[in-house]
Structure formats: structure tokens, C-alpha cells
Amino acid sequence: MEESGNNLISLHDLQVHYRSGGGLFSASKTVKAVDGVSLDIRRGETLGLVGESGCGKSTLGKAILRLTEPTGGKVLYNGKNLALLSRSLMREQRKHLQMVFQDPYASLDPRMTVGNIIGEPIRTFGLVNGSVEQRVQELMETVGLSRRFVKRYPHEFSGGQRQRIGIARALAVDPEFIVADEPISALDVSIQAQIMNLLERLQAEKNLTYLFISHDLRAVRHLSDRVAVMYLGRIVEVADGREVYRDPLMPYTQALISAVPLPDPELESKRERIILTGDVPSPIDPPRGCHFHTRCRYAIAECAEVSPKLVEIKPRHYAACVRISGDHPNIEQNAAENLGVVSV
Amino acid sequence: MDINETILSVDGLRTYFHTEDGVVKAVDGISFELKKGETLGIVGESGSGKSVTNLSVMRLIPEPPGKIAGGSVTFDGIDVLALPIDEVRKIRGRRIAMIFQDPMTSLNPFLKVSKQLMEVTELHLGHTKPQARAHALKMLKLVGIPDAEKRLDEYPHEFSGGMRQRVMIAMALSCDPELLIADEPTTALDVTIQAQILELIKDLKARMGTSVILITHDLGVVAGMTDKIIVMYAGKVFEQAPTSQLFSTPANPYTKGLLRSVPDPAHEQGQPLYQIPGLPPDVAHLTDGCPFAERCDWVEEICRREFPPFVEVADGHHSLCHFARRVYEDSKPEIFGDM
Fold first, then answer.
1. How near does any CA of chain B get to the CA of A103, in Å?
2. Stretch A115-119: mean pLDDT, rounded?
3. In chain A, which residues have their Cβ closer than 8 Å to the Cβ of B276?
4. Cβ-based burial of A76 (10 A; exposed 0-12, middle 13-18, buried ≥19)
5. Residues of B in contact with A188 (CB under 8 A)
6. CA distances from A26 to A20, A31, A288, B220 (A)
7. Residue B180: other Cβ atoms inside 10 A
8. Would you state the CATH architecture of domain A7-22+29-96+175-339?
């Protein structure tokens, strides 16, 4: 969907389906955690991926790195399809593709010292000419940890410091691409800002490309060049960060943005909030047609039938909704004028 | 009922925990007042003492290792800390109700929702079974649970996170309490569900006239929900102000820092985010000076040496800072613009 030369990662119809349940008397069901995602991640950018819990955003991140196996589609990295690589060849690629997790405590071995945690990938990949210790200490300074802490264990650190350790470990192999899966959600407000600034500084210094996964729209807005919105396994809107917040096209994105409370009592008192009814439906048995139609205030009969495709509505602004098109981008207006299906 | 009547007054409350690591002064001299029908926000990061404050008010501090070491809690003229525990139990759930962050841990997974809701009014209001069941149904409908007749006899695990929080709210409001304490009620929920729950609390509060204490780490959540706010740090009240004043003219460097470090989607991006440097202090090992001194932009030598005063910078607006007035003046918008 974009010129390919700038893309570091290209996803083509990526799928992660699993079988769920199925006992003596019940048939197993298919969970479509990621249901046909096509998306480009450009070299040097931060692509923000937002969505509510259960929408498949973490699974998508893991499937790119094959920490979860994709069941269909392609993951192109520098033109190679990672989904087809053997395990050992994939392992080789991991030095370019790294992940930072939400809960730094769960992702750090409690019995290893910080020095060993950060040094392990360096040793595994035999990456360093000089001493591993020296490289570890450099990394610790890069992420803002005192090198005096090299012999300490994870439990001796605060949440923010542990996240710095997780970031240092990801950086140890000098990757090109980092999937950051909710890296700040478990942290206190004053520490979140520190980690966001750290991620931005590292990106500038090391020319990193990020997929930043978060349910926190404020953080995504701050960090991302482009934003993709995910709902029940599918991408429903993609645009530049500023554009998505200024002119969200999809009713789901509109509701998501309107739900974020603003730290400003005056604005808050004036706002007309769009309150979505109901919960996110289960991905085990997602609604037919557009997955969002059960909660959408603009839904018409066709929405329950047709699965909308991601279409370029405005330049560089994609949305998946049968009720909007390039000629008729405003769904509220379309609904007021009683326009039915305007794009398929 | 006098509209200006105080429903809850907390004065100089101190709650300490005796640990191997020393005495943790989790709450150290907190005072505030809540009037009938008001909503108070308590904001702070983990370890600031915001939850312990409210557990102390409810007499839910485990002793040992905890101990309420001083101060007083007065609820509708009753000295709560002096009350025998049996009497406290009569108030808890009946006149003061609570909802917590994770409804799954506060609901009994083995009991149907109906049973759990009915217990409350059978105990506190002396309802018969049929009365209690009718009341439970009414409450589930009130909090917006679709298909309430059917869902009444389901188990907690059959509800989604947002629906469970609604059940908790239904249970908390069953006896029409005068005070509702909501401790991070939306932190575990998605933003669209958070918006639903906050709207529900607002709506019920307006209808039932309940006073509310809303505890959260999210300044956005309190902005639209509260009349006044307390900002806590290291067991102390750092700032206390009417909501609009706290956001427009913060008088404490910590509050200012918190406000600046939240990315604001209403404004354009570009610059790095303001960050408060360093880490929150270890409350078991506080020094004599200001607990925020090491992280503060305004720090001077006196801050490390002397504990700061609690200064009233405007009517009802207090700040714990040696330079409260200067910080307050600094926050004031320049009304006359550039000359």
C-alpha cells in the first residue's frame, strides 16, 4: 500500500489463529487473534498500535518476531519472509529484531545479575570484540543505570529501573527494530515520562524503528509518527499521528479518542463524550461483517454482512468502513444524509 | 439536610507499618474534610499513601504490622477510630461503601452474583430473601447491566471486567451509602469502559447525592470528576486545592511536574516530555528535609535541611513547600500578556 523502499517491515495478510476449547461434547473454536493484517513499518519511524485489551495487538507484535507463530500471511523484513524461515535462521534474525515487554519483572530472570541479563544476548550471538563486561557497562549508561549496579539482581530495582534493564537487554544486540509492548503501562506517571524520553533519545541516537504497542492513547500520540488502530484482530484505521487525533474517520477511533480523560477541568466540562455501549466482543466468535458493528452508532444492515477493507480515504489516511469513502469521508454527515454503502 | 454539612473529617491521621526495614510512615499527618455531596480526588503514585489513607478511614489496616498511630477520623459526628470494631462493621457497607481496582478479587468466585448482592441488604437493611432479590435486581438495572434478570444468577467469571465493576458498584450502592470510596475503580479497565464507569459514577452521584472519594494516579480522571483534590507524596499531603485551581495554578513543584509530564493529546507534539528526575523516596528511610527535594526543580539548601511548611496560598488552596508562594505566582497566567 506504500512505496516499498522505505519499509523495514511489511505485513501481508498476517494471521494468527488458534484453536480454543473443544472437549468431549463441544467442537473446538477458532480464535482469530490476528485476522488478516497488512501494514508497513517504515525505516526509522515509530508506528503506534492502539486498541483495547483482547484486540490482538500484543499477538501481532509477537507474531512479527515469531514469538508466536503466524498461521498465515507474510512478514517481510528487508525483503525476506520471516514467516518461512527455519527456527535456526529465525534465531539469527533476532539480533536485528528485539522486544521490550510490559512487565519488566516477569521478563527478567530473578536469579541472574543485571550484568548477566544484559550480557547474555551478547554472548549468545558472539557479538563483541572487546570485553563483554565493558559493553554491558556502556549499555547500562546508555539507558541511564549506574554501572555500579552490574552485580545486583532484578528485585533490587524499582519498576522504572527494571524497564531500563529490559531496554538495555534489547539494545545489547544492536537491533534495527524493536517491538515495545506496553512498555510504560506498569509504571508510575513520573516514571512513564522518563521511559518515553529514553525511547525517543535511543531512537534518534541509534536510528531505531519502533512498533509501540499501547492502550494509552496519550502516550501513543506523543511517541508515534503514524498510528494504527486495531479492533478484534483487524486494523481499522491508519494515519499520521497528528491526523488520527485531529480527524479520526472511524467511529471506533472517534470513541476511543473521546474516552481519554484530559488533565484539564475546563476542557473536561465542555466535552461531549462518545460513550460506547457494551464490551469488546469475544475474538472467539467475532460478529460477522464489520467486527465493530455491534457497538457502532452508525451501523446499517450492510455492516453486519460486508467485511470492510482498509481503503485510502484521504492522502496517507486509511480506514475500513463501508460508510465512508474519499468523496464522503465524514461518517456523521453521511449518516445525517442517509447515505448507505459508499465504499466496498 | 444542611448542604454545607461535613460528612467526613480526617485530622492529622498517621498510619505506620512496623517492618524489618524500620517504621514505614505510610500516612503521616493527613487532614482533609469532605462535605455532603462533594467529590474529593486523592492523587498520588504508588507508595504515596493514598490507599492506606482510605483503608485507615475504614479501619481496614491489618494490625500488626500496621497501626494507626495518631489523628482522628470523624464520620457524621462519629469518632471512627474510637469505635468498637462491631460498630465499625455496621457503618462499613451500610453508610460507607467501597469499590476497588480489581473487582474479581473483591467478588467471591464461588457465589452467584445474586447471592452476593442479597447478602448486603439482608445484613444491613434486614431484607427478607424476596425483598433482597428484588432490590438486587433493581440495583443491577440501575448500573446498566443488560439482561439483568438472567445475569443475576450468573457467577462473577461470567462477567467481563467492566460488567464486574458495575456489579461492584451495584453492591456498594445497595444500602444507599452516604460516602462512596472508589480506589482506582477504572485502572484495570480499557479507556472506552473507563469512560462508561466514570459516567455511571457521576450519574449515580447526582441522583443519589452520595459523597465520593476517588483515589487515582490519573490526573485526567480526577479533572472531570471532582470538586477538590489532594495530591499525596511519601505519605504527606503535598497540595490541596479546589480542582480548577489545582490545574490552573498549582502551588507545589511536584504537582507542576506531574501535570507537565502527562502527554496532552489536545496539544501538538514535538518536544521531549517534561520528566521529573529520579525515583520516589523509600518511605522507611526519610530524611528531615522535604521528601521531594532530590527530584525538585526549585530545590534550595533549606529544603534538604528543614521539613517544609503547609502554606495557604489562596482560599482553600494549600501547598507543602518552602517556596509555595513563589511556585503559585509562577503558575499564574500572565493576564496582561507581554509588555
1. 15
2. 93
3. 190, 193-194
4. middle
5. 45-46, 217, 280
6. 11, 15, 22, 45
7. 23
8. 3-Layer(aba) Sandwich (3.40)
In this prediction, residues A81-90 reach a mean pLDDT of 92
Does A161 contact B160 at a Cβ distance shorter than 8 Å? no
What pTM was computed for the model? 0.87
Size of interface A-B (CB pairs under 8 A): 130
Q: What angle do CA B327, B330, B336 make, to 5 degrees?
A: 155
User: pLDDT per residue over B238-267, tens digit each?
Assistant: 999 999 999 999 999 999 999 988 887 655
d(CA A123, CA A120): 5
Chain A segment 246-265 residues within 8 A of B by beta carbon are 255-265
- Tell me the one-letter amino acid at A133: E
Distance from CA of B270 to the nearest CA of A (A): 8
Q: Which of B45, B262, B271 to mutate to test the interface with A (most CBs of A within 10 A)?
A: B262
Cis peptide before B65 (omega within 30 of 0): yes
List the A7-20 sheet strands across, edge first: A29-42, A7-20, A72-77, A80-81
Provide the CA A69 distance to its chain's centre, in angstroms: 17
CA distance B80 to B10: 10
Q: What is the DSSP letter of A276?
A: P
**Among the listed ranges A204-208, A284-288, B15-19, B235-239, which one has the minimum average pLDDT value?**
A284-288
Sequence ranges of the domains in chain A: 7-22+29-96+175-339, 105-174
Contact B224 A269 (CB under 8 A): yes
Which of A211, A199, A184 has its CA nearest to residue A142?
A199
Question: How far apart are the CA of A267 and the nearest CA of chain B, in angstroms?
Answer: 8
Chain B interface test: which of A50, A189, A280 (most B C-beta within 10 Å): A189
Residues 192-221, chain A, touching B (beta carbon < 8 A)? 192-194, 196-197, 200-201, 215, 217-219, 221
Sheet bearing B39-43, strands edge to edge: B96-99, B179-183, B211-216, B39-43, B228-233, B236-242, B317-320, B310-314
CB-side neighbour CA atoms (13 Å) of B40: 25
Supply the DSSP string of B181-211, one letter for each residue.
EEESTTTTS-HHHHHHHHHHHHHHHHHH--E
The DSSP H or E segment spanning A205 is helix A189-206
Find chain B residues with C-beta within 8 A of A219's C-beta: 263
- Residue of A56, A39, A65, A50 lying closest to A176 (CA atoms): A65
Identify the burial level of B301 via C-beta atoms within 10 angstroms of its C-beta, where 0-12 means exposed, 13-18 middle and 19 or more buried: exposed
**Other CB atoms closer than 10 Å to residue A132's CB: what's the count?**
18
Residue A328: all three cell numbers together: 464522503
Q: Which residues contact A81 (CB under 8 A, 6 or more apart)?
A: A74, A75
Residue of A nearest to B164 (CA): A279
Give how far B115 is from chain A: nearest CA, Å.
Answer: 24
Q: Is A189 on the interface with B (CB under 8 A)?
A: yes
d(CA B202, CA B197): 9
* Beta-carbon separation of A264 and B264 below 8 A: yes
Q: How far apart are the first and last CA of chain B?
A: 52
Total residues found in chain B within this entry: 339
Question: B43: nearest CA in chain A?
Answer: A189
CA pair distance B198, A290, nearest whole angstrom: 28
ipTM comes to 0.81
Asked if A103 is an interface residue toward chain B (Cβ–Cβ < 8 A), one would say no
pLDDT tier at B339, thresholds 50, 70, 90: very low
Q: What is the CA radius of gyration of chain B?
A: 21
Residues A208, A43: Cα–Cα separation, whole Å: 8
